[in-house]
């Protein structure tokens, strides 16, 4: 009898652990942490220990923001088939527990970054948490089609955290990296929103394709991709990076522009999915190219 009860308890524990990990949105975090790590090696020559502790601090901060998002959006998550099985709307984790968890993670992040890195990196991570939870999730997401444009600044904070952890400050080069992620976010997310337009419309979230239509969204994707291209070339023009970075930046920009123009012309789901998936690899490869350029 005791063995049977123990065997039943194990899956239960696994489910709880899995649910709390899910609240941190680990898949979303992978790219954020990559920009943190690569930025640290662009900024200097950090120790493995400093990189590890900054990654932990960044993960906890972004994870807290993700948990808050799960808490706050539980009503619209419950109304969408894609998100209805998430831990909070499904009832496996209570809203109160998710909220406490969110703030506990952020407090731990601040303490770890402050004690093991420096106060500036801890404050920047806190600013990213505040921007994602209050500015994006609470204020903009349900009120403005510009939600992802302004709210996307939260996702651009990790390079600043990484730079500050290594140098103790924020240099102009770090601000360029922030700007690149900031202007990358709209075409990346709008390509995804084209695929989920009906779900957003059902729950009243004013994403760009819901409010201004798919044609305008595709046009905005092209415009932001062109703007992003200019921004990615400026670090080379101003001498922050060299030829290796420039070659990658030009090649990636050409592919991104081609995909965005194809999406505008064909206006189909397949093109939207290709653009979205490419945008993930685009940012990852661009930041790795920065490290190659800085280290070689």
TrEMBL record:
Membrane topology type: Multi-pass membrane protein
GO (cellular component) term, any one: plasma membrane
GO MF, any single term: protoheme IX farnesyltransferase activity
Superkingdom per UniProt: Bacteria
Pathway: Porphyrin-containing compound metabolism; heme O biosynthesis; heme O from protoheme: step 1/1
Catalytic activity: heme b + (2E,6E)-farnesyl diphosphate + H2O = Fe(II)-heme o + diphosphate
UniProt keywords, alphabetically: Cell membrane, Heme biosynthesis, Membrane, Transferase, Transmembrane, Transmembrane helix
Biological processes annotated in GO: heme O biosynthetic process
Membrane spanning stretches: 50-72, 93-113, 119-139, 160-184, 233-261, 273-292
Subcellular location as annotated: Cell membrane
InterPro entries tied to this protein: Protohaem_IX_farnesylTrfase, UbiA_prenyltransferase, UbiA_prenylTrfase_CS, UbiA_sf
PROSITE patterns in the cross-refs: UBIA (PS00943)
Keyword Membrane: yes
This enzyme's EC code(s): 2.5.1.141
Pfam families named among the record's database cross-references: UbiA
Homology family: Belongs to the UbiA prenyltransferase family. Protoheme IX farnesyltransferase subfamily.
Entry function: Converts heme B (protoheme IX) to heme O by substitution of the vinyl group on carbon 2 of heme B porphyrin ring with a hydroxyethyl farnesyl side group.
Note: Carbon 2 of the heme B porphyrin ring is defined according to the Fischer nomenclature.
UniProt-recorded name of the protein: Protoheme IX farnesyltransferase
Organism: Solirubrobacter ginsenosidimutans
Gene: ctaB
